[in-house]
């Protein structure tokens, strides 16, 4: 049996540093934002009547920070709460659409499931970044889908409500990307991910 020579460890042999937890969270938020934009586009292509109608400009998910100028970590905690509400709304969209039209297949449905999965992962990531040691930041959806959806009546109402939810998802995914990037810059001292 040949003896192996011990070679000194060189810089090229050392492990390549990968993205940090914050960097991975930023990348995940950016991917989620991209997919939310794609999901919204697919929905608009499917529901062409939306070109003539727009939901009111009110936010479905709103947060009121306790501090007037919350720190970046407090902003991420607020973001976590908003993302939980978005996940609940997305669960509700999925449930209501299946009740109305059954289980469908296609690019929209596949992407909707991908967005749901990425949103769940982003919730775990934000909890790990700024969560309390006692586990008070939950990752379960924060919305009950057992009543009519914001007064939406009939198929048209459901479609408009779904459109509003997708706009809201897009808004909060973009907000997540920006907020997590600020946290990354503060903690890592660099803007590069």
Descriptive labels:
193 residues; 4 helices; 60% helix; mainly alpha
Question: Can you walk through the features of this model?
Answer:
By secondary structure, the chain is mainly alpha-helical. 60% of the residues lie in helices and 0% in strands. It is built from four helices and no strands. The radius of gyration is 21 Å and the shape is globular. Residues 7-17 have low confidence and may be disordered.
Bulk shape: globular
The low-confidence runs, each spanning 5 or more residues with pLDDT under 50, are 7-17
Report the radius of gyration as a whole number of Å.
21 Å
What is the CA-CA span between the terminal residues? 46 Å
Instruction: Report the structural category.
Output: mainly alpha
Q: Can you write the helix and strand succession as a string?
A: HHHH
Helical content class: 55-70%
Strand percentage lies at under 5%
Overall average pLDDT: 82
Total number of β-strand segments? Answer: 0
Number of helical regions: 4
The biggest beta sheet is recorded as: none
What's the layout of helices and strands?
Layout: H1 21-46, H2 72-101, H3 107-130, H4 154-188
Concise account of the structure shown:
The protein contains 4 helices and no strands. With 193 residues, the protein is mostly helical. The protein starts with 20 loop residues before the first helix and ends in a 5-residue tail after the last helix.
């Amino acid at each position: 049996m040949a003896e192996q020579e011990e070679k000194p460890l060189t810089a090229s042999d050392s492990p390549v540093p990968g993205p940090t937890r914050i960097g991975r969270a930023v990348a995940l938020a950016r991917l989620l934002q991209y997919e939310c934009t794609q999901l919204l586009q697919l929905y608009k292509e499917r529901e062409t009547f939306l070109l003539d109608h727009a939901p009111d400009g009110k936010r479905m998910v709103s947060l009121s920070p306790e501090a007037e100028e919350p720190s970046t970590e407090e902003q991420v905690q607020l973001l976590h709460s908003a993302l939980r509400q978005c996940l609940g709304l997305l669960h509700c969209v999925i449930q209501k659409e299946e009740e109305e039209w059954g289980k469908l297949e296609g690019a929209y449905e596949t992407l909707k499931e991908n967005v749901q999965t990425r949103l769940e992962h982003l919730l775990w990531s934000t909890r790990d970044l700024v969560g309390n040691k006692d586990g008070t930041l939950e990752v379960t959806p924060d919305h009950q889908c057992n009543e009519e959806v914001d007064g939406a009546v009939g198929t048209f109402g459901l479609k408009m409500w779904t459109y509003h939810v997708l706009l809201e998802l897009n808004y909060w995914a973009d907000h997540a990307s920006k907020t997590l990037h600020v946290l990354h810059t503060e903690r890592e001292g660099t803007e590069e991910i």
